[in-house]
Automatic annotation (TrEMBL):
Segments passing through the bilayer: 246-267
Family that this chain belongs to: Belongs to the SCO1/2 family.
SS bonds (residue pairs): C86-C90
Keyword Nucleotidyltransferase included in the entry's annotation: no
Organism for this UniProt entry: Leptospira santarosai
GO molecular function, one term: metal ion binding
Protein name in UniProt: Photosynthetic protein synthase I
Entries under CDD domains matching the protein: SCO (cd02968)
Keywords recorded for this protein, A-Z: Copper, Disulfide bond, Membrane, Metal-binding, Transmembrane, Transmembrane helix
Length: 279
């Protein structure tokens, strides 16, 4: 009887543990497959790639403008690809951009330009105008001359999107564009300097990215010093302390301290030696 009960208990235990082991949540995702809706959507970083500044778009007043008109001497450009009727992600992106620009000590239009381009060719300049006014009101600084909200035709949009590695597609089921959220930092000459992923942005990261893109032409000595001490970490999407430069800086200050002690000693030593020789 005891053997029979033990046998039943053993079989039940085996069935129970087998059922637990047979359910492995990782099995459902071990292929790491991208959902079908996201196929062909994303960002392929093309750091150093030159934008075609001869592309033409319409600004928020309906005027046809060249992309080159926003690239001025020594001024980097912060670029966003969005669409103005987007109900979710683009709003989060533009909100995040505006929030970090409000925290930044620099002013849009003075140290850098901000350009938003709609990748929906059906959108018109009146939408861009309304969007710009809404974010200028939120920003509440300056005269708004450095803010540019553009629309364009499919050919120009595709060329710009391809040059920054931005892939997106239309979802007919919910009638929305599927896309990523990225801000691009562009040099004054039109080359891609930095990708800032996400919908929220760090003030220091943005400032150092703009400073780096300008090749040190904007900002003050403190900003230059900060850039020397920090290096961009793509994995963390932010700037982190650069140990090598910190070590160089430490070595420099060590030499200064040694010089401060040794130079007066050498001067006194030489003066004493001269006095001894004269005696």
């Amino acid at each position: 009887m005891v053997f029979k009960n033990s046998l039943i208990t053993g079989i039940a235990f085996c069935l129970f543990t087998t059922s637990l082991l047979s359910y492995d949540p990782a099995v459902r995702f071990d292929k790491n497959e991208k959902p079908k809706e996201l196929e062909g959507v994303g960002v392929q970083e093309k750091l150093g790639n030159q934008l075609d500044l001869s592309l033409s778009f319409r600004d928020e007043t309906g005027k046809l403008v060249l992309l080159s008109s926003f690239f001025k001497k020594d001024k980097p450009v912060l670029l966003s690809l969005v669409y103005y009727k987007c109900p979710t992600l683009c709003n989060f992106h533009l909100n995040g951009i505006t929030d970090v620009l409000k925290k930044l000590s620099w002013e849009v239009g003075k140290e850098f330009e901000y350009v938003a381009v709609s990748f929906d060719p059906k959108e018109t300049f009146d939408l861009a105008h309304a969007k710009k006014n809404a974010y200028l009101k939120e920003y509440s600084r300056g005269d708004g001359q450095g803010w540019h909200f553009l629309t364009g035709n499919q050919k120009e949009i595709t060329t710009l999107a391809d040059s920054v590695g931005f892939s997106y597609k239309w979802n007919p089921e919910n009638e929305q564009w599927i896309h990523s959220s990225v801000a691009y930092v562009i040099t004054p000459s039109g080359k891609i300097s930095r990708y800032l992923h996400g919908v929220t942005f760090d003030e220091r990261t943005l400032k150092l990215s703009l400073l780096e893109a300008s090749d040190g032409k904007i900002g003050d000595f403190a900003d230059q010093f900060a850039l020397f001490c920090f290096q961009f970490d793509p994995g963390k999407n932010t700037y982190t302390l650069y140990a090598y430069n910190i070590m160089k800086l430490g070595g420099f200050f060590t030499l200064l301290i040694m010089a401060a002690f040794l130079i007066p000693f050498w001067i006194r030593h030489n003066r004493d030696s001269e006095l001894i020789r004269k005696e």
